[in-house]
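Case study 2.
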Amino acid sequence: MKIICAQSVLFGREAFSTLGETVVLPDRRIGAEDVRDADALIVRSKTRVDGALLEGSRVQFVGTATAGFDHLDTAWLDDHGVAWAAAPGCNANSVAEYVVAALLCLAHRHGVTLEGMSIGVVGVGQVGSRVVRKAEALGLRALQNDPPRRLAENNPIFIELDELLPVCDIVTLHVPLTDRGPFATRRLADARFFARMKPGAIFINASRGEVVDEADLWLARQAGQIRHLVLDVWDNEPHWNLRLAELADLITPHIAGYSFDGKLAGTDMIYRTACGFFEVTPQWDAPSHCPPPPVPYLEYDPAHREVEEALWEIVRQVYDIEADDRALRTPAHAGDDPAERFERLRKTYPDRREFFNTTVHLHGAYPLLRRRLEGIGFRCA
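Prediction:
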């Protein structure tokens, strides 16, 4: 068996070589000639998989080690009998932790208190549901919008955008990118969307860049309809919107879901699905490949600090979102092309570990701080 594996798939060679000959190639350079004699193709989001790539090949199975799969032409794959799989939820906790870090950073920078604020979570799937739980752990009131779930579950907890947007201090998007059907999300956040938002709200997009009309977002931010802006995803990646970035508080190169733990989970899920498809017993064990976390244990004295300031000081020692922001804004050298910088930062992204890998020892009882730390994912001693 021959397998073509994208370079960005964490431990791709180690995992899939247990199934057969595994050739690792740069994500965007995988071409039709490369896959012509392959039995399986394993990718992440930078590789477009469609008829132009696979026509005439012997590929039977395509796996993407990502939660989203809009880079796969699933209709073509289905029509041509090519099995495909994604890794739903693999990076959901990573994205939710990114939102937590962003909110705590904004609160620290601007002297605002998150507790008591309302947050509108648009899209309450694997990611959004975790954002809801962590936001509530921080003391926010979470309002939820998910039309497909409302239709399927008839659950009144899911409210309409017309009800959510005017009252929420924070709006965060966690929808998939879809073009078809009654719940298409491309350009979901447009001029009408922003006009309905509560004036001076915070807006976060860590879903897909194409769900936002960036020209309309720029106008809403310029007019003050949106006071603070956090963007991890962009409409024309890797060509991110420099003009819009100037108005944003935090910008990052599509790395919200890029935790080491999330990427490892994605590889593991696709590896095991591929093993099932080819009727092979799994031989590769993902947990055995985890390096020790850089901050396994943290001593912290919260004396004379407000709870949210303490949370920010702890979170930033595990994930410094401001470092990601600086890296994208700052050219590495004269003439550093922004698109190339975007790609380089994704390719060389450091091993960010999720909060559960860190145990925090608090000097003193501080029950509220302990509850909130545990609520966003830390262990407390």
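The chain has a mean pLDDT of 96.
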